[in-house]
Amino acid sequence: MKKTLLIGATIAASATVLASCSSDSPGEASKGEPLTVLTYAQNATDDQLTMYQEFFDGCTADGGYAFKQLQVPADQLLNKAVQLTASGDAPDVIVADNQMIAGLAKSEVLTPIELGSLDPDDFVQGPFKSGQYEGEQYGLPVGNNGEVIVYNKQLLDDAGLSAPESWADLSHAAQVLTTDGRYGFGQTFAAGETLSWNYWAQLWSAGGSIAELDSSAAVESAEFWASFLVDGTAPQASLQWQSDNLINELVEGRLAMAQVGTWTLNALLDTADEAGIEIGITTQVSKDGEAPIVPFGGEVMVAGVGATGEALTAVNDCIISWSSDTEGLAERDEFLGYLPSYIPAQAAVLESAPHLEVLAEQLKNSRGRTEEVGANYQSRTVALSAALQQIATGAESPEDAMAAAQSSAASGDK
Amino acid sequence: MKRETLMDVEAASRSRTRAPGNLVGARRRQLPTRVVAGRLVFLLPVTVFLLLMFAYPMAFNFWLTFQSYDLASLVTGASEFVGLDNIVTAINDPGFAGAAVNTAVFTVVSLVVQFVIGLGLALFFYNRFPLSTTIRALLVLPWLVPSIVATTAWRFIFQDPNGFLNQLLGHFGVPPVHWLTSSDTALLSIIIVNIWIGIAFNLVLLHSGLQSIPTERYEAAQIDGAGYWQRFWYITVPALGPVTAVLLVLGFVYTLKQFDLVWTLTQGGPGNSSQLLSTWSYTLSFNNNNFGQGAAVADFLFVASGIVIVFYTLVQRRQNNA
Q1: Most A-contacting residue of B80, B288, B293 (CB-CB within 10 A), to test interface
Q2: CATH number for region A2-144+297-363
Q3: Residue numbers in B near A379 (CB within 8 A)
Q4: Which value does ipTM take for this structure?
């Protein structure tokens, strides 16, 4: 409730700012009206707002521009950015989830930026490319998170198992570790983005593409990813679970292994430690056990069409300085629970957050979710997560479910 | 409409025995321009309200159905006329048929069961007994509680595997049911919650309907030797006719557009097994940003509601005129 009020107040305040800047005449002592930053509200902490504000206050020390934040729920950011632009209040900076960039760029909400002194090779390539659309660079990554497999070390040791790497490993371990009152493997199976992005890594490892959900690789990997629910080695309740539920079950001893978001690792390691459970962390699996190609989470800071001329220069400077100020980047990403995509800043974060080592390893081989289908991504994630649930509950055969998903997703293509 | 005008004209001619031949002229003289203008002024607020709140959104939705409107269109304002493309694509989508069948099942089963249970409870509370008013008030609670609150509570009740309901069933040796997480029971679960909410509405209207039946009829029937069921079939049921019609029509429209309940409980899942046309339309519009297809699905809901309401209005007019 308090959070809602705060967010509401923020939006109201920002709206007032927007209203006042459209009526004020420019040319004040400082650069006139403040630039708008559209950020996402996470259910984490309100400090995030402060962190971003401090960054923007400092990023154009000599530019003389002030920044005001407009915070909206993360999943509504794409639509909000488009709406604001449509009504003439285009944001100057947008901090959006990387899978939204293609949609934003296609909707003509973004302005290309210059990389300046930054070297593209200093970035983790997948996240770096997530700031691009059709050859233009619109922004740079804020930092990344992702999903990794966590497991109860003791249980795997007792069963003589090592950390799973291939599909066969994971299925076998899940079978062995499932007992009365305990499931072998848990993953998020609630419909939505988390379900689909967990699956993409399996799809890619089988050689498939998001563009073809009815390919044999897609059917095969969907069948694998749903098999735990079909075989009863994953709880059916996971059809409504997110990572938070999974780490609880793991700590309670009702789950031996789980694929969870790296944002839950801190909490998992703390509570597991209290419960006397030793947790192992490993990468996501792949079909043959080779290093998996994974999608990644995390925002991209992009320039909006609101910024032109000098204001665009100021915005560009800020986007560059997010990464080029390496020390500050390490601090800010650590605060967000992210691993920097700018490699020179990674070491500092990994030193204080060693549980992100696996993520760092995994990200070397990463691919953006919109690389294959661009702005048509949204309808794919909806169709795919429905299909995976259908396979998991036995409502449809893998072939039929994936064929329907492809036809449903393709009907939304533009 | 036509019939009323004719009747008015007849009435007018009857009241003026020496009316001139030209009836229309007679009516004109009865209503000076000032009076007509006055009447129009009174109509103005409701007309503006209807245009703004009903006509505009509906017309916009209808327009969207035939346009290639996407996120970019919001910014550029540009979209093309695409004819029936959106409707054809929406119908051919594998999700549509399932959602349509689910909506039909959801609506019919909810309506029938709500009505039967509501009627049973109304008859039960017809006789006053200690605490009857209090209990009746409590039964209305589900209808008064905000839907999000009620459905969140139901989420806990249905929780897999050891929510309240499963624990309760466990005492009778029933193994845990995956209420919201199985494609076999998800639709059933949302129907149960919808019935739970709807019973109160049926109870209130039917109870007041029962109060309005004169007790003399029952007394007379009893003297004539009619048993309980005979009195029920020959007095109660016919007398409740108009209330029943209102209930079914309103219930139909409420149920058809039910959204938040499904969204909170299952979001149409797992795997579209509890997807309704309303949630499907929302998903198309706001998850996929396919506004045209979302609008096309919404049109089907408009048409279905429209048919029922027109049918109801016709039946009611016939009853009034009879």
Answers
A1: B288
A2: 3.40.190.10
A3: 287-290
A4: 0.81
